[in-house]
Amino acid sequence: MFSAEFLLTSLVVVLIPGTGVIFTVSIGLMYGRLASLYASLGCTLGIVPHLLATVLGLAAIMHTSAIAFQLLKYAGVAYLLYLAVVTWRDRSAFSVHEVKRKGDAVSLMSKAFLLNILNPKLTIFFLAFLPQFVATDAQSSLGQLFGLSAIFMAMTFVVFVIYGQLAHAFRAAVIESPKIQSWLRRSFSAAFAGLGLQLALTER
């Protein structure tokens, strides 16, 4: 069921830097290894509703309903622009201590979750992507879809964790340089704004 083609295609899709990757990397740089783990988990959980929508057939409704798609799209655009503004205006130094408090962890996971759940392109993507790898002679197509979804989520989490850990490895150099901090903050802000603009211009 889990063909090499599906695994390779999923890996390529997950590796491509998008909103989740940018968010996880920024968190890893600013708050450390554990914080990036929370961000990775939040981003992964954020794709669950999209996968469920695909598996249960709700994605087809969104694909044919311009209003539903546009509402979710512009909610996602607003949230990305909000992240861009908050990141741009933040003048605090990058944290030397890692996130350990439960409240901070929940906050990070919530932000990451919202980042992905408000991206309607994910639902449309899964609607077009997953069915291609369901065997035509499968006894349970629904079971296969759930299995493929689980594998995709696992790969997403692992890749995002790796991105976060790589970002953490550069924290020492970043924390010691206010100029690098400023440059990174502006770069992340511009990236969020750019992704928001790209989403705003997206057609179904």
Automatic annotation (TrEMBL):
It is a multi-pass membrane protein. It comes from Vreelandella titanicae. Keywords: Cell membrane, Membrane, Transmembrane, Transmembrane helix. One of its GO terms (cellular component) is plasma membrane. Belongs to the Rht family. This is Homoserine/homoserine lactone efflux protein. InterPro entries: LeuE-type (IPR001123). The lineage of its organism: Bacteria, Pseudomonadati, Pseudomonadota, Gammaproteobacteria, Oceanospirillales. The chain crosses the membrane at residues 6-31, 38-61, 67-88, 108-130, 142-163. GO terms for molecular function: homoserine transmembrane transporter activity. It is found in: Cell membrane. Its main location: membrane.
